[in-house]
Amino acid sequence: MANKHFNPFEMAQRQFDHVADLLNLDQATRDLLRWPQREYQFSIPVRMDDGKVKIFRGFRVQHNDARGPSKGGIRFHPLETIDTVRALATWMTWKCAVVDIPLGGGKGGVVCDPHHLSAREQEQICRGWVRQLARNVGPLSDVPAPDVMTNPQHMVWMLDEFEAIHGGKYPGFITGKPVGMGGSLGRTEATGYGVVYTIREALKELGLPLGKTSAAVQGFGNVAQYAVRLYRELGGTVVCVSSWDQADQTAYTFRKPAGVNPDELVGISDHFGGIDKARARNLGYEVLSGDAWIEQDVDVLIPAALENQVRADNVGKIAKKVRLLAEGANGPTTPEADQGLKERGVFVIPDFLANAGGVTCSYFEQVQCNMNYYWEKDEVLGKLDTKMTSAFRAVSELARRQGMFMRDAAYVVAISRVAKACHERGWV
Ligand code: NAD
């Protein structure tokens, strides 16, 4: 979330400016892509359970739709700001472009805290959000999805309101729906598996057989759990995961050098991905400080918890053995730490490439809804692997050819695709 020290939209614009210089983009294209094309800010009145009416602020930002309908989640968060939504919408444009799916970037939000709202109040916020935007979103223009503190139930309420207003069935209006209500099989696994597909390809380039490598993972939520599962299935060893302890208000790392077992860890986790320390010790895990994951003597690091985790103050703690860092989380590495990684020759798979499996599977959900025909899970995951692998190869080939850092190469691929679409449409 934005605060007075850190404005994510300013950071997104700085990243863009850097690549616009590398690409020597003309002024009109820069002016177009530095800012969202459209922004909606509105009020949602909700009659609360106590009978009083409360007004919630809502947002939708459509950063760029030159390559297809805007795509991006809706966050419910008490600290949501228009600048956070603008930044996330911008990053969605680059994410969809780097995996070459025909979608643009969007993001939405409501300033609210679901911890303190009843299910009925949340339903009214969802329906109110759609009523405000019913003519500005839709399967052919802007397709929302879940994000922080929104889930498949919220998506179904939003779909129902949209269909009531438009008088028809439009399952392609929104993704992240429950399976059986137009959701796609494989969506739960998609982001974590996608991270590992890109790791598999990177290790091939580094000449390391995945089956002989070890990894340390930060986090044990949706992304981390499925990344750990596939990494193990492919023969690798994950020596630790970490999680946030709500009671102690700190993070811990759970280590088993012979390899962690996600099934036993899921059995002792709460539904926010927090692991029980005492029960982990009983299962033979060492419980270490939250930072310990970054110091492990492994081949691969996978930050898959939250932003701002690999910084100037801890990048030096990374073991010499580490060859690869795959960003499962959004924004885990600061620009200063990036410099440290470059100097040490660590291969980085940047966030908007590594974790693009989620939006790619959302795109598959949309395609299945539009056909009204749903694929088996293996088919979804096979198509996901193909997409992620070819996206990775396009970026790494450019990085190799031009001697570029992977993050810069990924931005160059994404921004040039979007710029090209804007030129071809005659916008700039
Ligand atoms: P999640 O809420 O399911 O899990 C987050 C995990 O991180 C939990 O295990 C939590 O205990 C742990 N955690 C929180 N603070 C921590 C800390 N300080 N140190 C160590 N662990 C900590 O979230 P998720 O869906 O797995 O998302 C993780 C990251 O991946 C986020 O940055 C998210 O934006 C990004 N992402 C997620 C998806 C997706 O499809 N879920 C897609 C793209 C990007």
Using brief descriptors, characterize the structure shown.
single chain; 428 residues; alpha/beta; 7-stranded mixed sheet; 5-stranded mixed sheet; 14 helices; globular; binds nicotinamide-adenine-dinucleotide
Describe this entry's structure for a reader.
By secondary structure, the chain is an alpha/beta fold. It has helices at residues 8-23, 27-34, 82-98, 119-133, 152-166, 187-206, 222-233, 262-266, 277-282, 335-344, 351-354, 357-371, 377-402, 406-424; strands spanning 38-47, 53-64, 70-77, 104-111, 142-146, 214-218, 237-245, 250-255, 286-289, 300-303, 324-326, 347-349. The strands form 2 sheets. The chain has a 7-stranded mixed β-sheet with strand order 9-8-7-6-10-11-12. It has a 5-stranded mixed β-sheet with strand order 1-2-4-3-5. Helix 3 links the parallel strand 3 and strand 4. Helix 6 (187-206) packs across helix 12 (357-371). The longest helix has 26 residues, at 377-402. The two termini are 32 Å apart. The mean pLDDT is 95. The structure holds nicotinamide-adenine-dinucleotide (NAD). Nicotinamide-adenine-dinucleotide is lined by residues 191, 218-224, 242-244, 251, 272-274, 290, 304-306, 328-330, 355, 358. The site of nicotinamide-adenine-dinucleotide has 24 residues, from helix 7 and strand 7.
